[in-house]
Fold each of these.
Amino acid sequence: MPARNILVINCGSSSIKFALVNEAHGQFSLSGIAERLGHPEAVLRWQRGGEQDSLMIPSADHRAALAQLLPLVQSAAGGKLHGIGHRVVHGGEHFSNARKIDTQVLEAIRSTAPLAPLHNPANLLGIEAALKLYPALPHVAVFDTAFHQSMPEHAYRYALPDALYRQHGVRRYGFHGTSHRYVSHRAADMAGLSSGDSSWLSAHLGNGCSTCAIVNGQSRDTSMGLTPLEGLAMGTRSGDVDPNLHSHLARALGWNLEQIERVLNQESGLLGLSGLSNDMRSLEQAREQGHAGATLAIEVFCYRLAKSLAAMSCALPQLDGLIFTGGIGENSPLIRSKTVAHLKLLGLALDKEANARCIRGVAGAIQSYGHPRVLVVPTNEERQIALDTLTLLDS
Ligand code: AMP
């Protein structure tokens, strides 16, 4: 059977990221983004075989953008597209695995929208548009939360009145599950261990950041909660704050809920602390030049990351390795070394040269000799979504 092609789609409210994944190749045959959807300046950008190109698609909505994408996909896939994998942010308690999309699955995604009001409706827009354009193909939903459905109750429950969980679904769900799952499998391969019989700490550090404790291929705890705001300091998100902060800001400053949510989600984290940028590259450069805010933002980021990893270690029977992934985890020797420096009690220490070598897609072990394994593993959520889609096509 020739190697199959899966189109992976990740829809935001005004964007569609896409990748055409061939099961036999690591590189995407086609990838890109349609941005500013609904605006006069909407644009489709793509890369194919090392070439970049773009097309203005003025005021295109999700469906129009996908229609423009269709001939590109057909040509890159040689006319043979076998299925479509959709990234869906929140699956609530409905989904612990990827699922073929049917009316029941669509209804469950819709009913979970109150838990992810920004993300699930956007994901649904993309799914519905793609179903209309590709009615004959199988469509699969892969959920960011699904991997964490294996967390034990003592890890996923908040210490809140029981009815809030039973009647309103208030619990910890966790996100970035596709990435944590992918890198933990890769890490086990790299270490010559079985993913079904090994224990990992994973740090996904991108614009959003989370940690995860993975035992025998299952998530046992993670730092994000009901929403992706809980846990680590991130690009623009605060991560954990005192829950009374909300009422304090309302009383002391007269802020309403929208203002508080905006500050915590869009104006905090690295951006808020540094007063400069949410981009770690810019902060590392500014720190080199002695910028106090950038220096503080990096210190807080690494200390809180280390604290979260130490907390996650409670869920592990033993530590087979710590994994760094995501744009920061894959590219920043500075953040890796500062974080690991706080984790001496776990016995962790890095080899300076190996740490410096693992950047821009280079995977590898970076621990110093005789210390527990630390791996840099580039994530590939699109590939994992495509593999999940293929698994369901085969079943
Ligand atoms: P992601 O969301 O996974 O694309 O990650 C985005 C984050 O990775 C941003 O904060 C980038 O600044 C950061 N990043 C990418 N390359 C580097 C680098 N060479 N050094 C430090 N941070 C980087």
Amino acid sequence: MQLIDGKVTSQEVRKEIAAEVEQIIAAGGKKPHLAAILVGHDGGSESYVAGKMKACEEVGFKSSLIRFEDDVTEEELLNKVDELNNDPDIDGFIVQLPLPKHIDEEKVNANIDPKKDVDGFHPVNVGRMAIGMPAFISATPQGIMTLLSRYNIETSGKNVVVIGRSNIVGRPMSILLSQKGNPGDATVTVAHSRTANLKELCLQADIIVAAIGSPGFVKGDMVKEGAVVIDVGTTRVPATDTKSGWRLKGDVLFDEVAPKCSFITPVPGGVGPMTITSLIINTLKSAKKEIYQ
Ligand code: GUN
């Protein structure tokens, strides 16, 4: 069994990006610039956005944090989105979710210029991804694709079971893994809460992607010998022995499943560390006009 170490891979990718930014600057180019809009003071959002800003600094990007209080109006927020859409110095930006209830997240998302949508949440980017056009791909699916690629995990012709059909993980993963390419060319089954014979399906799987948000859902007797298991679960469960009072639990019962696997991602330290790095990858792609000319 080999652990897929998302921390190490994330650091490798960030070093490569930092070197590329140095080359861009040396050739007279400008620093890639990522902006983040943060509404309110939710602890989780604060720490995610701080991580994103820190990652920018690490790779030599410029970053801008734009804050609004919880009572910001939808109009004010949309005006800021418009301003960032039209600011030639900004290569990409994100609006950290969730937003307060009085603001329509879908509307805000739809107003982001797809060319600057480095989160890959805009319907244009999701649609382009689905038909195999160049697109910004959202952080978690892209992070998983990077891990599969960097660990040389064969996906062509393999049976994959994706557990979960969310717009941000399960569905895009199923599309990306079934597309032509490497990673890709897999035979993908999307399982969800109405799936009848999940255990039998999983026992046929060469690769399982667990993205349901149910701690320890995938048990040892659901996994075949030699399978690759990607655990996307990040549920916070109460803990008495941590400073924060909680710890992250994956969707996979690691102690039972890991001994059967050829490769497995731990939680924490597997898929999670790759997500912010994927945002950095997208921002660089935007600065280099790799997706849209
Ligand atoms: N909230 C939790 N994850 C994300 C993310 O990837 N992007 C944005 N914009 N908000 C989030």
